[in-house]
Amino acid sequence: MTIDWWTLAIQAINVLILIWLLARFLWRPLEASIEARRKAAEATLKEAEAMRAEAAAGLAEIDATRARFAEERAAGLAEAKMAAEALRTDILSKAAEEAEAQKALARTALAREAEETRAAWAKAAAQLAVDIARKLLAHLDERALREAFLGSLTRELAQLPEAARRSLGANGAALTAVSATPLDSTEKERCRALLGEAIGHPPHLAFATDPGLIAGLELKGPHVIVANSWRADLETIRAEIGHDRSR
Amino acid sequence: MNSPLATQTLFHIGPVPITEQVALTWVLMVVLSACCWAVTRRMSLTPSRLQAFLELVVETVDGQIRETMQAEPAPYRAFIGTLFVFILFANWTSLVPGAEPPTAHVETDAALALLVFLAVIHFSVRANGVSGYLRSFASPSLLMVPLNFVESITRIFSLLVRLFGNVMSGVFVVGIVLSLAGFLVPIPLMALDLLTGGVQAYIFAVLATVFIAGTVSEGRPAASDNAASSNETERGPQ
């Protein structure tokens, strides 16, 4: 076996050239590509890391905003609660005032209605009393009744103070004897005599008739009226009843 | 059939004979360079399947160098990787009808072994200087200098003989079987040649890496020497 040294040298040179060629066309471009991909991956990772940090910051900001919203909501709720409470108090006070006013109105209306009812009942009672009195009067002897009222009139005059009694009909003042039914002449004389005896001097007496008295005999002077009739009694009774009710 | 031990000259350029293996090597160089240029001229961050495969090859070569040498693979990638690629495709040219692998001739294998021998010296001197390279022969002691020197020669011869013997024997066996048996009978042996060619390319590249790594690491100053020299530097002239 012989070795061709020329071939050996040429093959060595060929391999050296191939090393250079492949280094230029294979190894370096591939290494550059791998390096570029590695850098791109690193850049992507850094970018992803930055985005993750940014997202974390965004999340933190969102959490802070949510917390702020919660605080604002709580404050708003508290404020609304206070406003509602104030409004409720205001409404309640107004309602209480209105209720009080309504109650006062109702009381007034009730009082007026009660007064009207009482007046109606009083009127009805007075009318009833007048009717009863008229029915009683129909069963009584009018002359005896007038005699009785004349007697009671003289008693009323006797109970007056002496000075007041003496002033009745003094100085020629006219007195009027008012009866429910007309008096006959005998009764008029007797009345004049009894009144003169009561007041201490003969009176200047006139006679009048007023059926509204129901029954009775009243004496009217310029300054004094001596009420002596059932109407006056009924008026007195009604006034006393009203006085007792108001008391 | 010609003997695989004989070289067949195709033509002469002046006094230089151009043999069949040289011509085939030129064809291989052109094809490999053209394919690599065609593939790598349009690289993108989103790789095609071919680009991804080539990047996988690069990563594999880098990983092998990194594991073997415990160093960054960039300075050694072109040499080791090209050795592997060239030997692999040169071995596989046996599949081309009428072509005989350049590695089946002792001149090509000797040229490859010579380049490994020179690369060992080059990388060792570049890493540790001339003294470092010479110091690598005295590892682990001065008594080992003759043995290490002989070993640096013999291991290169072992590379040469291993590659040449395996590839030449494969071609020889296929030729003998082809001359004795039918046309399709050598196919299993040719398939075995493919496997053998790949394995031999891998072994050659790995051994070259180991030889370079051994010389580079053995040429480094010892830890105690480093400490002494650093102490001298810190003390300074008095």
UniProtKB/TrEMBL annotation, chain A:
Record-level Gene Ontology MF annotations? proton-transporting ATP synthase activity, rotational mechanism; proton-transporting ATPase activity, rotational mechanism
Coiled-coil residue windows: 31-58
In terms of superkingdom, the source organism counts as Bacteria
For this UniProt entry, which segments traverse the membrane? 6-27
GO cellular component terms, alphabetically, are: plasma membrane; proton-transporting ATP synthase complex
Q: Which InterPro entries match?
A: ATP_synth_b/b'su_bac/chlpt (IPR002146), ATP_synthase_B_chain (IPR050059)
Q: What is its main location?
A: membrane
| Topology relative to the membrane | Single-pass membrane protein
Q: Which CDD domains match?
A: ATP-synt_Fo_b (cd06503)
Does the record carry Ubl conjugation as a key word?
no
UniProt keywords (A-Z) are: ATP synthesis, Cell membrane, CF(0), Coiled coil, Hydrogen ion transport, Ion transport, Membrane, Transmembrane, Transmembrane helix, Transport
- Keyword Membrane present in the record's keywords: the answer is yes
Q: Summarize the protein's role.
A: F(1)F(0) ATP synthase produces ATP from ADP in the presence of a proton or sodium gradient. F-type ATPases consist of two structural domains, F(1) containing the extramembraneous catalytic core and F(0) containing the membrane proton channel, linked together by a central stalk and a peripheral stalk. During catalysis, ATP synthesis in the catalytic domain of F(1) is coupled via a rotary mechanism of the central stalk subunits to proton translocation. Component of the F(0) channel, it forms part of the peripheral stalk, linking F(1) to F(0). The b'-subunit is a diverged and duplicated form of b found in plants and photosynthetic bacteria.
Q: Which family does it belong to?
A: Belongs to the ATPase B chain family.
Assembly with partners or alone: F-type ATPases have 2 components, F(1) - the catalytic core - and F(0) - the membrane proton channel. F(1) has five subunits: alpha(3), beta(3), gamma(1), delta(1), epsilon(1). F(0) has three main subunits: a(1), b(2) and c(10-14). The alpha and beta chains form an alternating ring which encloses part of the gamma chain. F(1) is attached to F(0) by a central stalk formed by the gamma and epsilon chains, while a peripheral stalk is formed by the delta and b chains.
Q: What is this protein's name?
A: ATP synthase subunit b
Q: Which organism is it from?
A: Jiella pacifica
Q: Which gene encodes it?
A: atpF
TrEMBL record, chain B:
Record's subcellular location: Cell membrane; Membrane
A biological-process GO annotation: proton motive force-driven plasma membrane ATP synthesis
Predominant place of localization: membrane
* CDD domains according to UniProt: ATP-synt_Fo_a_6 (cd00310)
Gene3D superfamilies according to UniProt: ATP synthase, F0 complex, subunit A
MF term (GO), any: proton-transporting ATP synthase activity, rotational mechanism
SUPFAM superfamilies, from UniProt?
F1F0 ATP synthase subunit A (SSF81336)
Q: How does it sit in the membrane?
A: Multi-pass membrane protein
Instruction: Give the transmembrane ranges.
Output: 23-40, 74-92, 112-134, 163-187, 199-216
Record GO cellular component, one term:
proton-transporting ATP synthase complex
- Please name the HAMAP family in this protein's record: ATP_synth_a_bact
User: What job does this protein perform?
Assistant: Key component of the proton channel; it plays a direct role in the translocation of protons across the membrane.
Q: Which family does it belong to?
A: Belongs to the ATPase A chain family.
Q: What is this protein called?
A: ATP synthase subunit a
Q: Which organism is this protein's natural source? A: Jiella pacifica
Q: Which gene encodes it?
A: atpB
